[in-house]
Design goal:
The complex is a heterodimer of chains A (349) and B (291). By secondary structure, chain A is mainly alpha-helical. Chain A is built from 15 helices and four strands. Chain A has a domain at 32-246. Chain A has helices spanning 7-11, 17-36, 39-64, 72-89, 94-116, 122-141, 166-189, 191-201, 203-208, 213-239, 249-262, 267-284, 293-304, 313-328, 332-345; strands spanning 151-152, 157-158, 161-162, 241-242. Chain B contains eleven helices and two strands, in the order H-H-H-H-E-E-H-H-H-H-H-H-H. Chain B has helices at 2-32, 39-56, 61-82, 92-114, 140-162, 164-174, 176-181, 186-208, 219-232, 237-257, 263-277, and strands at residues 130-133, 136-139. Chain B has a two-stranded antiparallel sheet with strand order 1-2. In chain B, helix 1 (2-32) packs antiparallel against helix 8 (186-208), helix 1 crosses helix 9 (219-232) and helix 9 (219-232) runs parallel beside helix 11. The radius of gyration of chain B is 19 Å and the shape is globular. The chains are: A mainly alpha (349), B mainly alpha (291).
C-alpha cells in the first residue's frame, strides 16, 4: 500500500491521526462496553477476547512463521490446568500463577519446536496433533489434575480486589488482551518478527542471511504457546470449571479456523476471525431459537433428520465457511478488506 | 510367551484397521499431496448409509455392502471434483484446512441425521464368537478384519502393478506433467484416486461399525492410520501397512506390559521419536530441499 520511507515509519504503532482516533474510540468503547449491555454479552465478550489472544498467538506460528499446528488445545489445557493447580495446591496468587502456567506452556512449545526443526507439512501436522491429544489424555488420567472429574476454579482475587462477576473479570481480560495483542504486534515489527517472516517465505534463504533457524523456529513455537497458555489460564475462570473433555482436537481445529478465516499473517485478521467464529460458536449452539430459521429447521429435522443432533448444524456451517474461504479468498477476511480498500481508494473515479 | 503372542495377534488385528486407513491416506497423498483429514468421515457417511439400508429398510447384506462401496467411490470422486479441484494456489496448510472443513461438514450431516447415540450395525458375524488357533484366541470378527485387509492389499497391489489404470496412476504420482504429455487424463486419474481411496477407507469404516457405531467412531482410526502412514513415509503403500501393524503391536504390548491407561497415547510418542530420527518416515527417501 503506502510506501515506507524509513525504519521508524515501519515500526511505529500509529501510522496517522486517523489510526489514533480509531484506537481511542476502540479503547473507550471497550471500557464502556460492560455498562451498555446485558450480562450475557459481557460473558460473550470475555469468551471472544480469550479466543482473540489464542488466534493472535497461533498466527505468530501459522501466519508469520509458516508452521502448522493442530495441537494448540494442548497449550490451552496446560495454561488452564497450570493456573488452577498453582492457585489451589501451591496457593500462588493469580497473576504469578497465570504467567508461570503460560511459561510452562511456552516450555512445552519449545520442546515441540525441536522436532519441528526437521519436519514439515503432514509430518509436522501429525506431531503437533499427537502432542495436543497426548496432553489431554495425560491430564485426564492423572488424579492430581482431577482426572475425568475435572477441577473447579478457585475464587479470583488480585490484591484486595475480588473479581466475582463477569463485569469485573471483563476488565482483567480486556487489559490482558490489549496488552498481549499490542505486544505481539510489536514483536512482529522487530528483528524477531522479520526473522519469522523470512523463515516462512524461504527458510534456506533466511538461514543464508544469518537467521538462526534453531533459535527462531523454537522461539515462534514458544511465543505462540505462551499466548495460548495465558488465554487458557483466563478461560479456566470464564468456565469456572475445567475438564479434559473441553480441550479436544476440535478445539485446535477451531483455533486454526479462526486464524485462517481471519487471514494468515495479519493481526487485525486474527482478531476479526476470532470474534466472528466465537460469536457464531456461541450463537449456533441454540440454533432452534432463531427467529424464522429456527422453526423451519425444527420441522426439517423432525421430518428428515433427528431432533437430537440439530446442534451439529454448526459444524456444517463452520466447515462450509472454512472451505469457502480457502477456495475463494485464501487471505481470509483480511484479504476481502484489502480488496475493498483498494477498490474504493480512488472513489469516485 | 503365550501372553506375548496373544498380544501380538491382537495388535495385528487392531493394526489392520489402521492399515486400511493409512493406505487410503497414502493413495491420496501420493497423487495430490493432500493429507486427507476427511477420510474418516467419508467412511463414516458410508457406514451410516449401510446402517440405514440394513436396519431401517431391511435390505440384505450382500446387496447393501457392494452398493455402499460404489457409493463410496462416487463420494470420493465428487469431493475431489467439487471441492479440491477448485482450490486456487493450493499449499499444504490450505489443503489441510479444506479437508478439515469437509470433515466437519460430513460429520455434521451424519450426526444431524442420526443423532449422537450409539447404534448397532446388524452384521452377520457376531463380535462375541472366537476362533482358537493352537492356544491363541482371536475373535472371528478380528479374523475377518485381517482377511479383508489382506484381500484389499492384494487387490491394490495387483491393480497398481498390472492394470492399465493402475500404471497410469503410478505415472501421475511420479510426474504429473510427463504423464499428461503421454496422453494420460491426469485430472480424471486424480478423481479416480480419491474414489479408490474412499472405497478403501469405507471398508475400514464398515469393519469398525460392527463393534462401535457413533459419529465419533472414525476419529481414532483416522489419526492412527494417519500416524501409521507418516511412520511409513506417507508416500509408500507397503510403508503404511508396516507402520500400521507396528503401531498396532506396539500399542497392544504397551497396554499389556506397561499401562493400559496410556495405550492410545504411546502411538504418538513413538511417532515423534521415529520422526526425530528419520524425518521422512521409515520407508521414504528423505529429500533435502535445494534452493
Amino acid at each position: 500500500m503506502d510506501m515506507k520511507r524509513d525504519y521508524y515509519e515501519d515500526i511505529r504503532f500509529f501510522t496517522s491521526g486517523v489510526t489514533v482516533f480509531w484506537f481511542v474510540v476502540l479503547i473507550v468503547f471497550l471500557s464502556a462496553f460492560p455498562f451498555l449491555v446485558k450480562n450475557y454479552y459481557v460473558y460473550v465478550a470475555n469468551y471472544m477476547a480469550i479466543n482473540v489472544i489464542v488466534a493472535v498467538g497461533l498466527n505468530i506460528l501459522v501466519g508469520y512463521t509458516g508452521q502448522i499446528s493442530l495441537g494448540h488445545a494442548g497449550f490451552f489445557a496446560i495454561g488452564a490446568y497450570g493456573t488452577v493447580t498453582l492457585m489451589t495446591s501451591a496457593h500462588v496468587p493469580f497473576l504469578p500463577a497465570l504467567f508461570l502456567a503460560a511459561g510452562t506452556a511456552a516450555f512445552f512449545g519449545f520442546l515441540l519446536g525441536l522436532p519441528a526443526l526437521r519436519l514439515e507439512g503432514p509430518y509436522l501436522a501429525i506431531v503437533t496433533l499427537g502432542f495436543g491429544l497426548t496432553v489431554t489424555q495425560v491430564i485426564g488420567k492423572l488424579d492430581f489434575f482431577g482426572g475425568r472429574q475435572g477441577l473447579h476454579a478457585p475464587d479470583l482475587v488480585i490484591g484486595s480486589w475480588n473479581l466475582d462477576t463477569d463485569r469485573e473479570f471483563y476488565y482483567l481480560v480486556m487489559v490482558i488482551t490489549v496488552v498481549m495483542v499490542v505486544a505481539v504486534r510489536n514483536i512482529i515489527k522487530t528483528r524477531v518478527g522479520r526473522a519469522f517472516i523470512a523463515i516462512r517465505d524461504a527458510d534456506i534463504a533466511a538461514e543464508a542471511m544469518g537467521v538462526n533457524l534453531v533459535v527462531f523456529k523454537t522461539l515462534a513455537f514458544a511465543l505462540s504457546a505462551f499466548c495460548t497458555g495465558i488465554a487458557g489460564g483466563l478461560y479456566a475462570f470464564v468456565l469456572r470449571f475445567i475438564e479434559p473433555e473441553i480441550f479436544t482436537l476440535l478445539m485446535s481445529i477451531m483455533f486454526l479456523a479462526m486464524v485462517v478465516v481471519g487471514g494468515l499473517g495479519s493481526i487485525m485478521g486474527s482478531i476479526t476471525g476470532a470474534c466472528l467464529l466465537s460469536w457464531m460458536d456461541l450463537q449456533l449452539r441454540n440454533i432452534l431459537s432463531f427467529p424464522h430459521v429456527g422453526t423451519w429447521l425444527e420441522s426439517l429435522s423432525r421430518m428428515y433428520f433427528s431432533i437430537t443432533g440439530v446442534s451439529n448444524i454448526q459444524f456444517i456451517l463452520f466447515g462450509g465457511i472454512m472451505i469457502a474461504i480457502m477456495l475463494f479468498e485464501p487471505l481470509g477476511i483480511f484479504g476481502i478488506w484489502i480488496r475493498t480498500k483498494k477498490y474504493w481508494k480512488t472513489w469516485p473515479f | 510367551m503365550l501372553n506375548f503372542l496373544q498380544m501380538v495377534v491382537n495388535g495385528i488385528a487392531a493394526g489392520s484397521i489402521y492399515a486400511l486407513m493409512g493406505l487410503a491416506m497414502v493413495i491420496i497423498y501420493k497423487t495430490s499431496e493432500v493429507p486427507n483429514f476427511a477420510q474418516g468421515e467419508m467412511a463414516l457417511v458410508c457406514s451410516y448409509l449401510a446402517y440405514m439400508f440394513l436396519d431401517q429398510y431391511g435390505l440384505p447384506v450382500y446387496a447393501v455392502f457392494p452398493a455402499v462401496l460404489v457409493f463410496a467411490f462416487l463420494l470420493g470422486c465428487l469431493l475431489e471434483f467439487a471441492v479440491l479441484r477448485r482450490a486456487k494456489e493450493p499449499n499444504v496448510l490450505g489443503m489441510i484446512i479444506i479437508t478439515i472443513g469437509l470433515e466437519m461438514i460430513l460429520m455434521g450431516i451424519v450426526s444431524w441425521k442420526f443423532g449422537a447415540e450409539q447404534k448397532t450395525m446388524p452384521f452377520p458375524v457376531s463380535p462375541y464368537d472366537s476362533l482358537v488357533i493352537g492356544k491363541l484366541y482371536i475373535s472371528s470378527l478380528e479374523a475377518m478384519m485381517l482377511c479383508v485387509t489382506l484381500v484389499i492389499m492384494g487387490i491394490l497391489f495387483v491393480f497398481l502393478r498390472f492394470s492399465k489404470l493402475g500404471v497410469a496412476m503410478k505415472a501421475t504420482q511420479q510426474n504429473a506433467t510427463a504423464a499428461r504429455l503421454m496422453g494420460i487424463r491426469v485430472r480424471r486419474i486424480l478423481m479416480g484416486t480419491w474414489g479408490i481411496s474412499s472405497v478403501v477407507g469405507c471398508t475400514a469404516g464398515l469393519l469398525i461399525s460392527t463393534t462401535l457405531m457413533q459419529p465419533y467412531m472414525m476419529w481414532d482410526p483416522l489419526l492412527k492410520g494417519f500416524a501409521a502412514a507418516v511412520l511409513g513415509g506417507m508416500t509408500s503403500l507397503p510403508g503404511a501397512v508396516v507402520g500400521a501393524y507396528l503401531l498396532g503391536i506396539i500399542e497392544n504390548l504397551f497396554g499389556g506390559y506397561v499401562s493400559i491407561e496410556f495405550k492410545s497415547t504411546v502411538a504418538f510418542a513413538v511417532i515423534v521419536l521415529i520422526l526425530c530420527i528419520k524425518p521422512s518416515g521409515l520407508f521414504a527417501r528423505h529429500y533435502v530441499k535445494k534452493v
